Amino acid sequence: MFYLNEIYIFGHGVETTQKLSGSTPHDQLLIQTSNSFVGLLLFVVGFLVFMVAFVKDREFQSFFAKGCVLLHISMALWRVNFERRLEDLAWDWPRQAVGDVVLALSWVFFLLYTWREKYD
């Protein structure tokens, strides 16, 4: 439906995609179920961010942004500590870790902008 195999090939290459897609039908079903839950989680997180955008309370938005910074830094640390040990994903983790740090910085810039508005 979403051409996941082609996306994996584009991101990781043919050989790694074959390894990551599972060797048995049971493994493939587990991976597809996991991908479905990841998609659902992304939808819920996007909906949550959309709802928070309409909250007028600056303290809550600041709390939410700090949580997002913590989440992105945690993901970057996870990639550095664990994903680099996986042979098939070893070359991919630096790019993703940098992406996580950049996303965390975007929330830090949001916090600095709201802090500047608060104390101006």
Automatic annotation (TrEMBL):
According to the record, the segments passing through the membrane are 37-56, 63-81, 93-115
Taxonomy, superkingdom: Eukaryota
Q: Does the keyword Hydrolase apply?
A: no
Listed A to Z, the keywords are: Membrane, Transmembrane, Transmembrane helix
- Locate the DUF7865 domain: which residues? 1-108
Q: What is this protein called?
A: DUF7865 domain-containing protein
Source organism (scientific name): Corchorus olitorius
